[in-house]
Structure formats: structure tokens, C-alpha cells
Amino acid sequence: MHFGARARGAALAMAAMSAAALLMTACQPGPEAAGSATGSPSGTAKKPTAPTPGSPATAKPSGGTGASAEPAGNSSPKAPASVPATATPATKKTKTCAAESLKAFMYQADVRPPGTGTGAAIVEFTNMSGATCVLQGYPTVAGAGNGSPEKNKPLTVTHTGPSAEVVLAPAAKAWVKMTFVQVQGEADGYCVSGSTPVGYPTLVVGLPGSGASQLALEDGGVLAECDNKATVTAVTATKPS
Question: Which parts of the sequence are annotated with region: Disordered (predicted)?
């Protein structure tokens, strides 16, 4: 009986020691708790690292320069509202000289084919208006029978030399020269072609877009020619001879 009581006391002492050991073991931190405290690679509580350039957190939107950048379509500076769409107005074309703005007279040319007829004549045009205008092109020529425009006899004209626009300021001048088939011989003369020479008191000389003028030779006389033909220059700013 005495032995049994000591055996039970020893058993109780060992049980108490085992319980104390178990209690101490439960108080020690386990591997997972240690990992969370020391930053184990497999832990989910790992402190975030700074984002690297090019990562979604720092990537800039295409076409912009940052949060304050304007959309790509508005990157160009806008013109001031006060500047008109067309800064320089288009230059208006200078008008053709009107018939009433021109003063014309006709005289016999110094350089003309040999013969006894008129040979060649020059018409001088002066801009009598107060505005600049232009002349261009070759003249038409008609003989006025008996000096009457309604009895005009158009001459066949052949153009010679280039045509260019001639700008006439107020009081400026331009010229055309007409060369005829010359009358030969003395007295009434004759035509090389065999036709009969023709004389006109006046000629009707026209310019494209500028009407026509009925003109007599400045020094008088009849405009004698053959074959109702003339070679004409275009309007020129250089006085012909």
C-alpha cells in the first residue's frame, strides 16, 4: 500500500511535467509565424517595391506627356483669333482699256517697202483715263470706202512677232505697225499681182476688247495699197519705226 501511493505520486509529477512541456511548446512561434516576421519570400505581406520605369503604374498614355498633357490632336498652338484666314487679298486683274479711254492717231512709218503707195503706217494709242489698263493682241484693219465705216472693206491680215500684255498707266502709250502690199510705178501705179491699186481715205483699226477707231493719216493723203492685205504687229510698248 505504501509502494502504491508513491507510485501514484510519481505518475502525477510526470504528468505535470509533460503538461508544462506541452504548454511551453505551444508558446514558441512556428515556422509560418517566423516567416511573416522576417519577410519570407513566400509571404503575402511583403512590402511593395517601387515601380520600375515602364511598368503599368508609371507608363504614360501614348500621344501625351503626362497627366497634364493635352490630347495629341491639340498639341499644335492655335493661331490668334484676330488673324484672318487669308492674310493677303488676291490681286485683281487689270482691266482691258476701253475704247473711250484711248486716243489714237495714225502716221506713215519711216521704214516701209519701196513703192509709191502708203507702204506702212503706225497707230499710236494713249491711255486718256485716270486708271491703269492693258492692251494685248493684234489689230484688225479695214478700209473705209469713201471714208464711211459702213462701207468697210476688211483687209486680210498676217500676224508678225509675239503678242504680250502691255500695261498702260495714265498717259502711257502703245503702238501697232501695219505694212501693206506696196503700189508700184508712177501716177496711179500698179500692183505686182495684177490687181488694181486701192485707196482709202481712212482705215478702221480695232484692238481685242478695246473697240475700233476710224483713222486718217496724220499728214493727210489716201492710204493706197494692193490686194487688200496687211502684215501687222501685236500691240507693243516699244515705238516702232
Answer: 30-93
> The whole model's pTM is what?
0.61
User: Can you tell me which residue has the cell 489698263?
Assistant: 133
SS3 state of residue 139: coil
Residue 152 lies in a domain: yes
Per DSSP bridges, beta strands 102-108 and 152-154 are unpaired
Q: Is residue 35 part of a domain?
A: no
Domain that holds residue 131: 99-233
Q: Quick check: is 203 in a domain?
A: yes
Does a structural domain hold residue 31?
A: no
pLDDT in tens, 22-52: 434 444 444 443 344 344 333 333 344 444 4
Cell of 34: 517566423
For the chain, state the CA radius of gyration. Answer: 57
Neighbours of 191 (CB within 10 A): 19
Domain of 146, CATH number, reads: 2.60.40
Convert 145-198 into a string of H (helix), E (strand) and C (coil): HHHCHHHEEECEEEEECCCCCEEECCCCEEEEEEEEECCECCCCCECCCCCCCE
Q: Tens of pLDDT along 110-147?
A: 999 999 999 999 999 999 999 999 999 999 999 987 76
